[in-house]
Design a protein that fits this description.
By secondary structure, this protein is of the alpha/beta class. 44% of the residues lie in helices and 15% in strands. Strands 3-2-1-4-5-7 form a six-stranded parallel β-sheet. Strands 6-8-12 form a three-stranded parallel β-sheet. A three-stranded mixed β-sheet has the order 9-11-13.
Length: 318
């Protein structure tokens, strides 16, 4: 990667990935794009930024040509809970935007990354230690777009030779960007509420295990996959990756070690609970480890310690 275009650069992943890439490849070599501009925002102000609606294929191509990019990292998408509330819009953005980005990569001979998700699995998928290659019959529009996206990226690689790569992200936890409509966002919100209120009401039921990852590990995974030797990649797209699997009471217990008296209750949201129930309890990331050396640094304990430390500074809590 030498000159990188990032779509959805102001989202949960994009806002941190853009800064991470700029720290590695140089600020001028990472072009951030999003559908809106936030004045004073670090991502906007620290390097090249362009307003882009990913459904506008002509504008996307013009921006890519203008900046002479050799890599496209396509992040713009609606997340699971929002996508279920707006399924038509989710299909238009998640698939239409992906198609446009792949066409730009094909035309300009760019390397290409887009994330899939554990949402690509469904209720008929093996729930424990979910294999890399397994049945994928999701019951949500978000999941449908993710499976379709995996297949489309495979097609562009095999049919047109586009160097497509991707991972299936678990829930991502970050102190930088607030939750953005994902089913796993409770695992972000709980830290805010713990510090601000000393209590949290979970919309995900007790005993509901889901895979999770701290954002620094996710950022490193993207860079490491994109820099990996292509000849060693058997799967290329949709690698299973994970760092930890836990259910709500486990994260509450870990927080309680740092905030004595923290309390958690439950008020289950049936929509998001149904989505969570259709996802795996844990996934097998052997292929990612063997093909490009994936590893995660943070577990639940070390992530919780770092999250609370960083959020105290962000929220100005002594």
């Amino acid at each position: 990667m030498k000159k990188i275009l990032v779509t959805g650069a102001l989202g949960q992943i994009g806002s941190e990935l853009t800064m991470h890439l700029r720290s590695i490849y140089g600020a001028d070599n990472v072009v951030a794009t999003d559908i809106r501009r936030l004045e004073g925002n670090e991502t906007v102000e620290s390097g090249p930024f362009e307003i882009l609606d990913v459904l506008d294929s002509c504008s996307m191509a013009e921006i890519a040509k203008k900046h002479e990019v050799d890599t496209v990292i396509h992040l713009a998408a609606l997340l699971s809970a929002v996508a279920e509330a707006k399924p038509v819009l989710a299909w238009q953005i998640n698939m239409g935007g992906l198609f446009n980005a792949l066409e730009v990569a094909r035309e300009l001979k760019c390397s290409f990354f887009t994330p899939s998700s554990i949402g690509a699995f469904g209720p008929s998928t093996p729930r424990d230690n979910t294999p890399q290659d397994t049945i994928q019959r999701p019951g949500t529009m978000y999941g449908v777009t993710k499976v379709s996206g995996e297949l489309l990226c495979d097609y562009y690689n095999k049919r047109f030779g586009v160097d497509t790569r991707g991972v299936r992200f678990p829930g991502l936890i970050s102190y930088v960007t607030p939750p953005g409509g994902g089913t796993t966002d409770y695992a972000v919100d709980i830290y805010y509420k713990a510090l601000e209120e000393g209590k949290y009401t979970s919309y995900i039921g007790e005993g509901t295990y889901m895979d999770m990852m701290y954002m620094p590990d996710a950022l490193n995974a993207i860079v490491n996959l994109m820099e990996a030797d292509a000849s060693k990649l058997v799967h290329r797209n949709a690698f299973n990756i994970t760092a930890m699997s836990f259910e709500p009471s486990m994260i509450a217990a870990e927080i309680s070690k740092h905030i004595p008296g923290f309390k958690m209750s439950y008020e289950v949201d049936p929509v998001r609970q149904a989505i969570a129930d259709s996802w795996p309890n844990s996934i097998d990331c052997t292929a990612a480890k063997e093909e490009w050396g994936f590893s995660a640094k943070y577990d639940l304990a070390s992530m919780t310690e770092d999250m609370l430390k960083k959020l105290k500074v962000k929220l100005n809590i002594k």
